[in-house]
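Ticket #4471: structure output looks truncated?

Reporter: J.K.
Steps to reproduce: submitted the chain below (59 residues) through the standard prediction queue, then opened the result file.
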Amino acid sequence: MNESDTRLKKIDPALHAAGWGVVEGSDIFTEQRAYIVTPGRIVTKAKRNPDKIDYLSYV
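Returned output as attached by the reporter:
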């Protein structure tokens, strides 16, 4: 099982079962480039060389 299979078969179903992307106002973004500025604040429109994050859960 590779990373994509793990995400598809294990991680995504667990996130949906927990309500992410299902509950109104929540969303999940995958494979995003972002700067984590401070705890609780993430900027996705970044300058140069942002970090790649696998998941970004948004409420």
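Triage note (M.O.): checked the attachment and the full token line is present. The mean pLDDT is 78.
Status: closed, working as intended.
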